[in-house]
């Protein structure tokens, strides 16, 4: 089977599992009920519609009702209301007004229809049009200008308090497919009141910076000299893939889990477990990326306010791509279609939103024993579950990897187009790197936060922090080569807000102290933190208050069903202080209880010419590795490849160079 597609999952069984995403019929039922109860049904919009998930305890008790969460926004009054709908009884059981007019404010995410509304409002504004004319644009040019609505941040300006606003920046284009980011219009920023439908503040700065006019397009039809020496690469699985899919339930070798999806987070993994002999062992109840923030380091008018919370202000799931075979995914693919609600509450299908396939990952383990000629090698295989979201100029891929030895990995892929700044001729850009003539890229950071609701072997879990430290010279270290591992039990939430330390190799273990492994210790998984920056914005700055989760690499909190997101429920136009810093300030017990581990990781980006016009993929992420969880190498039972050939004793290579997996 060459690069073929398996049947896609978009249909539900007659009785959906309590964790399955909402069906199209359920979306229709929930939104119809909520709209009918609205004060002005014609003005009712739906920024978010998702499953209201049951907790672990509710699932264990059984008989879990299907419920929908529907957030509405009145586009005339600006009132936002949360609803929880009991789908079986067609009843709204919770109705709560969002207090977005009171400090610290906070708004529902920006809706797709508001992107188009913003552009129309800006282009109709006389002040903005005058600013375009000042920069040499004609009426015909103005119609082609690209207007980018951008979540506005918060700086306590009077017009921000309790308002539903976006800031808009503009880019010149000669035609619709021209790369506008090569032609930023510097010094012009419009603040748009989305409820009032008007520009309420306009920056038109002096001196005028000329618009860079050099074309930097990247479409295949504009690449004049493409490579000609690339031959096809086929991924073949003639007997099909090794995974089994039943609706949203997946089994792959010893792994099992359920796939979920929400408008804010996108891909969710539920009830992740591993079959260890006769025992199915639970690892993580729920895993997802709940937030990311991208703060910029340029203090000028076009950029100081840029700090997009791409999950909470736009919705990673809302902006998911339709993935394409041979481009986004390669091999024997299983796609999941996702039912979603548009801004009017009408269901539609997000085609190919999630991609799942197997990948070869090199050597899993290997040894050649020269004394007796025993030569064994096994190849590693991993299961990949992924989705991609395009948020304005950037594109983000989220790839969960499950390995045969029990390892879990999340890798984020950062690509797309950088934000740009016009630079005066003959000058250097002060707030980042030059990427082309008169064109700079502002230095910025990307921070992601993953939420891991742990369930290691069920029951209570505990997190410990460990460092490697040299042992002092002495009678127990006479040669100076000994070093120790320290252990600190994180017993309360304030103890657990921690920063990684590469010098000491700091790591964290999540264990179940109620169980004993084969060597008498608690079974555990180790959180392996990759080198990662922290928020560099100054203490007291609004972006730091709003993105407080990015000031620590690791947080641990007691499970609370209302604490879903690292930045809080409504980071859009929020003054800050919500999310993980607020959760952890409660200082609840986190030892031997139901816990959530949150990990912040990311990338600091100093732009360079190689990042433009399209940025090569940058990677960030983390790994969870079994540490005393299994009694032996969990991948020790991988059989040799069926087409492998034995080697002669004492000779680990065939005479003809063929690869070998074992000597029988």
Automatic annotation (TrEMBL):
Molecular function GO terms recorded: copper ion binding; primary methylamine oxidase activity; quinone binding
Protein name: Amine oxidase
2',4',5'-topaquinone found at: 394
Top EC class for this record: oxidoreductase
InterPro entries: AGAO-like_N2, Cu_Am_ox_TPQ-bd, Cu_amine_oxidase, Cu_amine_oxidase_C, Cu_amine_oxidase_C_sf, Cu_amine_oxidase_N-reg, Cu_amine_oxidase_N3
Statement: the UniProt record of this protein carries the keyword Manganese: yes
Source organism of this protein record: Bradyrhizobium cytisi
SUPFAM superfamilies, per the entry: Amine oxidase catalytic domain, Amine oxidase N-terminal region
Subunit structure: Homodimer.
Textual note on the cofactor: Contains 1 topaquinone per subunit.
Domain Copper amine oxidase N3-terminal: 108-212
Domain of life: Bacteria
Family note: Belongs to the copper/topaquinone oxidase family.
PROSITE patterns xrefs: COPPER_AMINE_OXID_1
Keywords of the record: Copper, Disulfide bond, Manganese, Metal-binding, Oxidoreductase, TPQ
AGAO-like N2 domain residues: 23-92
GO BP terms: amine metabolic process
PTM per Swiss-Prot/TrEMBL: Topaquinone (TPQ) is generated by copper-dependent autoxidation of a specific tyrosyl residue.
Active-site positions on this chain: 310, 394
Stretches that traverse the bilayer: none
